[in-house]
Amino acid sequence: MSKEKVELDPEAIAPTQSTNDQVLAEKPIAHDAVFGEITEGGPNYRNVGWLGTAALMMKTQIGLGVLSLPEVFSSVGLVPGIILILVIAGITTWSDWMVGVFKRRHPHVYGVDDAGRMMFGRIGYEIFGACFCLLFTFICGSGILSISISLNALSSHAICTAIFMVIAAIIAFIFASIETLGRISWLAWVGSASIIVSIFVVTIGVGVQGHPPVTAATDGKVVESDYKIVGEPSFASAISSVSTIIFAYCGTPAFLNIASEMRDPRDFTKSLFVCQSIVTIVYIVVGTVVYYYCGSHVASPALGSAGPVVKKVAYGIALPGLIVSAVIFVHLPAKHIFVRILRNSRHLSSHTTIHWVTWLGCTFTVALVAYIIASGIPVFSSLISLVGALFGTFLTFQAIGCMALYDDSKVSKTERTSKWKASVGWGVFVVVIGTFLTVAGTYGSIVDIIDSYNQSGGSAAWTCADNSSS
C-alpha cells in the first residue's frame, strides 16, 4: 500500500484513444495512493469533478429514503418529524465533513475498511468492510424493490412481480459494470433530477387534490387528512422512524470511495454542502406537504399518495432515478470488493483478462445478492428502516466518530486545547448515540417486519402479487 499520494494533473490523466492492449507496453502517466499506476490504456479512476461529486453524493442520499419520509411524519407527527430531520442532518453533515478531512489526512484510505484497519487492525478492516458491502447491497435491494413497484404501477401489474424483480436486477448489473464513477456521474445527475421532479409532482398533486387518495382503505370515499402536529407512536415505531431518516442520510460511508475518484479532493467540502443543503430542503418540503394533505393515508413509497393518475405520472418520471439508485448501489460495493481483491496489482488499473473477470464477477455477485434481499424482504418501509438501523447508523455514526477520535488521539499534549476537548467530547457523543440507535433501531425495524407479515395485507417473499397498491 502506498503511503504517499502524488497530486494528479487532471489533464495528464484524461482519457486517451490508446488501443494498446499489451499491459506491459502501457505507459504509466501518474501514480495514485489507492489505484497505483494510472496508465493510458487503463481505466481513469481519478476523473470526477466537484459538480459530479455533488451529484453522486445527492444520488446516494436522495432516492429511496425520501420516498419513505412522509410515512415517518405519519408515525411521529409533523413537528417531531421536522426536528428529527434537522438533527440528523446536522450530525450526518459533520460526519460527511469528517470523511473529507480524514481522506485528505490519509490519502491511501479508499474506504471505511482501510480506516477500520488503521484504528483497530485486521478485525476493524474486516468488520468495517463487511458492513459497508452489506449496507449498500441492502440499499440496492431496496432499489430493486422500488423499481418493481414502479413497473407494477406503470403497467397496472402486467406481469408477475418476481419477474419485474429479475428485470430490475439485470438492468442494475449491466449499467453498474461501467468501470469508473467519472463515467457514470452523469447518470447521477439524471437520477437525482428524476427523483426530485417526481416527488415534487406528488407534492404538488396532493396539494391540488387537497385530501388523501381515495383507496380501498378509505372505502372509496373522500376523507379529510388526519395529520397530527405531534404523533403518539410506540417506542418501536418511533425508533424505526429515526432509523428511516438515518437511512435517508446514510450515504456517508460511500463518500470516502467517491472522494478517492475526485480530480481534486480539496473540493470535497464544496460538493458536500451543495449536496446536504439540497437534500435537507427537499426532505423537509416533501415530508411536510405530503403528510399534511394525506395524514395516515400516505403511501409507502410516497409516490402513490396523490391518486392513481398522479401515481402513474410520478412513477414514470421517477423510474430513471430508481434505476440509477440501484446502479450506483451495485457499483459502490462491487468496486469496493474489486479494489480489495486487486489492490497493489497491475490488474487493478489495466484491462487484463483478470481485471475484467474480477470486475464483472463483483458486479454480478452484488446484483444477485441484492435481488435475493429484495425478494426475501419485500416490505419497502420496513426494509429501509432495518438497513438504516443495522448498518447505516454504525457506519455513519460510530465509524466516523472513531475516525475523529483516532486523529484527535494523535495530537500532542501541548496542543490539546479547549477546541480539542470539544472535538473529543463530540466524537464520544456520536459513538454513544450511534450505538444506542443501532440496537434500538434494529429492534424497532424487526418488530415492524414481523407485524407486516402478521397482517393480512402483508407482502410475501418471492410473490407475484402487486406491490404497488399501498
Automatic annotation (TrEMBL):
Subcellular localization(s) per the UniProt record: Membrane
Keyword Cytoplasm set for record: no
Domain Amino acid transporter transmembrane positions: 48-446
Pfam families: Aa_trans
Gene3D superfamilies linked: Amino acid/polyamine transporter I (1.20.1740.10)
Keywords for this protein: Membrane, Transmembrane, Transmembrane helix
Principal cellular location given in the protein's record: membrane
Segments crossing the lipid bilayer: 72-95, 127-149, 155-175, 187-208, 235-259, 271-293, 313-332, 353-374, 380-406, 426-446
Membrane topology note: Multi-pass membrane protein
GO terms for MF: L-amino acid transmembrane transporter activity
A GO cellular component entry from the record: membrane
Family, per entry: Belongs to the amino acid/polyamine transporter 2 family.
Protein name: Amino acid transporter transmembrane domain-containing protein
